[in-house]
Amino acid sequence: MTNGYHPIRRKKNNMTESIFFILMVLVAVFILFKSPLFEVRQISVEGTSIPSEKIINVSGISSGQNIFKLDLKSAQNKIQLLPLVKNVNIARQLPATVNIKVEERKAVGVLQIKDGFAEVDDEGVFLRTANVANTKLPVLTGASINFPGIGKKIESEKLSTLINVVCELPQEILPKLSEIHIDEEGSIQLYMLEGIQCRLGLPEKIKEKSQMLLNVLQELQPQGKKIEYIELTYYGKPVVKYSDR
């Protein structure tokens, strides 16, 4: 008498299913890595003034590559070597597009160097050389600096202080400035395009002092009097010196 159980037939069925599964996996792998459907046809670049062609060339990504074989981390690291690049994100958009999003460093000031001027960002990174006549950024002076290569951070305590001051100043006042200076004692002076000196004292309460400076300028400049300097060393007690000339 038999109970209808056939272990040999069941083993054959399991083996057939396993072979079928393996074949399906191989077909899927072939489609993913060999099919022209997944060859890169479009590469988009966003968020930067650097020419797209340069970003793409530096990344090492090119049309015709299999989108799944791309080493995105390596491409990101290559792009981040560019001085103006702060962060990069690269993503696949199936079936055949690669999106590169760049966060660009923004210059906050200009430093005098041996052969001209250099732009620096809010982290003190030397971005590129600059023509001071064509920039609207303030010149940062008073810091003793050893310049590294372009794309490297400049190590200077006084420069860090100057950059912090720039970042705390109201946006309305920045276009009015020609220079921000730090002296031997660490006190800050602003020089405006019209020649007014603004003495802020130690780099404390910069936002409050600069807002008071704006208020003083808005009140006094319409009167037509020529201002020599505005003393704001002690917050809350502005002193204005008018020019005798």
UniProtKB/TrEMBL annotation:
Database matches in PANTHER family: CELL DIVISION PROTEIN DIVIB, CELL DIVISION PROTEIN FTSQ
InterPro entries reported in the protein's UniProt record: Cell_div_FtsQ/DivIB_C (IPR005548), FtsQ_DivIB (IPR050487), POTRA (IPR034746), POTRA_FtsQ_type (IPR013685)
Residue ranges of the TM segments: 20-38
Subcellular location per the Swiss-Prot or TrEMBL entry: Membrane
Residues in the signal sequence: none
Top-level taxon in the UniProt lineage: Bacteria
Protein name per Swiss-Prot or TrEMBL: Polypeptide-transport-associated domain protein FtsQ-type
Species of provenance: Desulfofarcimen acetoxidans (strain ATCC 49208 / DSM 771 / KCTC 5769 / VKM B-1644 / 5575)
Keyword Glycoprotein: no
GO annotation, cellular component aspect: plasma membrane
Pfam families: FtsQ_DivIB_C, POTRA_1
Residue ranges of every copy of the POTRA domain listed in the record: 38-105
GO process terms (BP): cell division
Swiss-Prot/TrEMBL keywords: Cell cycle, Cell division, Cell membrane, Membrane, Transmembrane, Transmembrane helix
Keyword Chloroplast: no
